[in-house]
């Protein structure tokens, strides 16, 4: 195929790609003087036989335009929360200043840390969009309340609700307290909720209004007004629902090509009962680490895409350099499931990086011991000695005292539940290791490198494959907003390639790959 540009005739695949990369201009496939070619020049196109054409496609046009207008962002793209503040204020600020939505990783951060982070974000990002993660914490309900309280104090207008298995009073309270009626009598949702789910039954909870039982309890406790409860009974719990497929951290490892259509179908079915649910947008997350993946998600009618693992290696992420280097060498199969700290007793797992760390196998051992013994005193002497020497590096009783000090400040109810319950006491001690392991990674404690818990999904390996040999291969060059721009630009380019192929155009194989280039080289 020949490329005609301005109106120079060329014959390389690179020139064809260059025409397609002029995203703000149409691309025509024409037959001219017995040859076929691509051009973005209307004059050249007019002198040949037009065989196919694609319109301009700026990255900002991908996805649902109402997502952009509702959240006040430039593109249907978001950086999801990464717990323990890995999705740091610096990361959220960088994204917001570039016009993208990002969620602060509040999960696992002490209340004082959340307070400071939201104060900074509210001060720095006045008038700009950002979100805060609200993670379901069945074993630590006080943490949920602390996050909601901080969001309300600092007028954070969007939360990313994740890991919910059922609605709780706190997420309902946040939603209800932001409901008002505009002069035209329409309900205005000032407190926005993006629900990240991996199951249809959980999505249905957020597609429907808040349940009466929770609203009645909140009114009875004086935490919302009866007028707010009445409004909450008329609107869906969420404005957006993210289909979380095979992702890092908490995940059910659902395939996106199945999960996304299932949630869209659920939304459309419920909209027949609850008409307001029709406006809830369904986005895609999990496995979004390349332009191909983003383009595929948009092709499946995702309203927006959310990235996670790939941002963990970005400069602005709150991770040590050693961990970022591990992430930058990961391949897509270098992930494994391991017991979760916040839902340890329930057997819930998280997806973590396997390469360069022994965390997964050590955490699984703790869970097996928890399942097999009624308490720490029942552990065989040799097992206890090994745990104290290799995993905890201190006597288990000392670990228990650390737990007492920690939960006395953070959530005393945890200690109350463990009084006289050896099994519950053992769970808190074992969670000590799981809870601290991600912090060792964040801080880069070298002597704890084998115990690093690094949340990671296969998207990280796919990103590394895509960026190999480019400027983005080095972690030091990975700026979170640049990653967003490259993924969206590549998705727009590949969408145009797909449109031409659907029209029957056979393009050179080299045109099917988008190579990231620094802005100054484009």
Provide the residue-averaged pLDDT.
93
Helix proportion:
40-55%
- Strand pairing plus helix content: what structural class? alpha/beta
Low-pLDDT ranges = 4-10
Shape: globular
Instruction: Tell me the β content.
Output: 5-15%
Radius of gyration: 25 Å
Q: How many strand units?
A: 18
Give a quick account of the main beta sheet: strands, pairing sense, barrel closure. Answer: 8 strands, parallel, barrel
Strand order of the largest sheet: 6-7-8-9-12-13-15-16
Can you characterise this structure?
With 522 residues, this protein is an alpha/beta fold. It contains 20 helices and 18 strands. It has helices spanning 13-20, 42-46, 65-71, 89-97, 111-124, 141-153, 169-177, 200-207, 212-220, 226-232, 256-271, 291-299, 321-328, 359-372, 381-391, 396-410, 413-418, 422-443, 459-467, 480-502; strands at residues 2-5, 8-10, 27-32, 35-39, 49-54, 77-79, 101-104, 131-135, 158-162, 179-181, 187-189, 192-197, 240-244, 249-250, 281-285, 305-307, 335-339, 349-353. The strands form four sheets. The chain has an eight-stranded parallel barrel, surrounded by six helices. α12 (291-299) links the parallel β15 and β16. The longest helix has 23 residues, at 480-502. Residues 4-10 have low confidence and may be disordered.
